[in-house]
Specification:
By secondary structure, the chain is of the alpha/beta class. The strands form five sheets. Strands 16, 17, 18, 19, 22, 23, 24, 25, 26 and 27 form a ten-stranded mixed β-sheet that branches. An eight-stranded parallel β-sheet has the order 4-5-6-7-8-9-10-11. β13 and β14 (318-322) form a beta hairpin. The N and C termini lie far apart (49 Å). 49% of the residues are buried.
């Protein structure tokens, strides 16, 4: 990593750390020898920004997915989990991190920069393995009240790092000075060449993400890095949001390194973005990120540098994965965090889910309604008003000849009149039945997709009887479900059980007419809640 050269040699490990490169074998008498078979040794891979609490798996199950891909360290956001736990946030987070040293990967976490109270943020900043303030949002999220500034001050006062969600796509240039000026250290909110240029110019460690949005986004950004020849040391690799299914089918940091090389990047530079530069950006390159004396013996053996193939993965010198399989699952029990259901939809009627226009054209042939787009997440095109056909006093759910499903965004716990937003939806297409999801952070809301108000209502009522998750129904019958019993955001399941549940949802939706590509439908639907909050569709 440091010399950007490849050489043949051996690595001496003791006490979980590398203590020598090419030791004198006439002097050293090792207790154990591992034959590297002439493979390439690279550092364990690092995800520089990951919402590990928003990908549905608890920490042990998540390790079953990422470690076989070569990932040995993650820098993790906790804001959704803490927000979902509400008044129990501090104790819940302690329980989540308990025995984190037993996981087959290293986790460094951040206290919430949004979605929770300042008191929760302050308490978490004192916890292990929390190292700083997480995702302090840009001004299109922030209210500019005292709490926002108190969080920023707490993050700096604790000597920790301040993650940002910078918003170069939404803010005028003058406001782009704000977050770096108050101590924000990095930025993962880049989507194209112009965004990257601004982020680098303003001195932020810029994290290239690949786990959200259209599959073309990561290619657009890597293309820009190759074209502009920006120094690779400016960049780190991260998933942001990613499903365990995506990790297992495509890979994690290993996949994006390989893609970067395929698109023309120097292989060692690409590897450094996923190792040394990520560690260095958090001041931890003396601990990991390279294969040098004193660093943790987090090592990946691959048969290629241009296409990362993690044949063997070591954490602290211990072999933890081989041939993309975890050798031993962490024996950690999270069942103590499972909650009891707390229904809140009493009094909701099917009529509240009917789609009514905000405006009807003078000739009565067209109606104006809201259109939500799952692929517009994070951008203004997420929700827009469109004109659609209007016949016999009813909205025809199609746009420019494209049939669309309806969507209802429903407040779970109403104090007075229940908040409901109805519109059309592009992202799931079923000819019958309904699918719904629930997410409690920062506010408890459901999203239901279908074409019939009664079917959607019955589906929501069924999910309301659970802590949270996703439910597919047809004719009032449950066809598939995923239970998220840990505060409504995590499944109390191992990896295989979680995969079976999410894949059964996709399989049943396919029977109802939906053809899915990319992330599982449940993960796609859950990303909606980020933008529903950002653009004011929750109260």
């Amino acid at each position: 990593m440091h010399s950007e050269t490849v050489f043949q040699g051996s690595i001496l490990v003791h006490g979980g750390r590398i203590i020598a490169l090419d030791p004198d074998e006439s002097v050293v008498r090792p207790q154990e020898v591992f034959d590297g078979q002439g493979l390439y040794a690279i550092p364990g891979l690092i995800d520089a920004h990951l919402h590990f609490d928003a990908q549905l798996a608890h920490p042990a199950a998540f390790g079953e997915a990422i470690v076989p891909s070569g990932t040995t360290t993650i820098f993790a956001e906790t804001l959704d989990f803490a927000s979902a736990a509400g008044d129990e946030a501090v104790e819940a987070v302690r329980a989540l991190f308990r025995d984190h040293e037993k996981l087959p990967y290293r986790i460094y976490a951040f206290a919430p920069g949004k979605k929770t109270s300042v008191e929760v943020t302050e308490a978490m900043l004192k916890m292990d393995p929390v190292i700083g303030l997480g995702e302090l949002a840009h001004l299109s999220y922030m209210t500019g009240n005292d709490d926002d500034f108190r969080r920023a001050a707490l993050g700096r006062a604790n000597g920790g790092w301040v993650n940002s969600h910078w918003g170069v796509t939404a803010l005028p240039d003058m406001l782009l000075n704000y977050l770096p000026a108050i101590g924000a250290h990095n930025n993962h909110d880049v989507w194209n060449e112009d965004d990257i240029e601004k982020s680098v110019r303003y001195g932020l460690r810029t994290q290239i993400k690949f786990g959200v949005g259209s599959p073309e986004v990561i290619r657009t950004m890597l293309r820009a890095l190759v074209k502009r020849r920006w120094p690779a040391e400016n960049f780190q690799l991260c998933a942001d949001n990613i499903s365990v299914d995506r990790v297992l089918t495509k890979g994690h940091i290993d996949w994006v390194i390989s893609l970067a090389v395929e698109m023309g990047m120097n292989p060692i530079h690409a590897i450094k973005m996923g190792t040394l530069y990520a560690a260095r950006s958090f001041g931890m390159d003396n601990e990991f990120g390279s294969l040098a004396p004193g660093r943790f013996a987090d090592i990946v053996l691959t048969d290629s540098l241009s296409r990362i193939n993690p044949l063997y993965v070591f954490k602290g010198g211990e072999l933890v994965a081989r041939d993309r399989r975890l050798l031993k699952a962490a024996e950690l029990d999270y069942s103590g965090m499972v909650q009891e259901p707390r229904p809140g939809l009493a009094g909701l009627s099917p009529g509240q889910l009917d789609l009514t226009p905000t405006e009807v054209s003078a000739d009565g042939s067209r109606a104006k309604v809201l259109l939500f787009d799952v692929y517009g997440r994070g951008h203004l095109k997420f929700a827009q008003e469109v004109w659609v056909p209007f016949r016999d006093g009813a909205v025809v759910p199609e746009l420019d000849g494209e049939p669309l499903n309806r969507i209802s965004v429903v407040q779970r716990y109403a104090d007075g009149e229940r908040h409901v937003v109805n519109g059309l939806f592009r992202g799931v297409s079923i000819s019958r039945g309904a699918v719904s999801t629930f997410w409690p952070a920062p506010r408890a809301y459901f999203v239901a997709v279908g074409s019939d108000s009664t079917e959607m209502h019955d589906n929501l009522t069924g999910l309301d009887a659970r802590v949270g998750g996703c439910l597919v129904t047809e004719g009032g019958q449950v066809k598939a479900e995923l239970a998220l019993d840990i505060y409504g955001v995590m499944a109390d399941m191992n990896l295989s059980e979680l995969l079976a549940a999410t894949r059964s949802i996709d399989a049943e939706l396919e029977k109802l007419g939906h053809h899915n590509e990319g992330e599982p439908v449940v993960n796609k639907l859950l990303t909606l809640f980020i933008s529903l909050d950002r653009f004011g569709f929750m109260i």
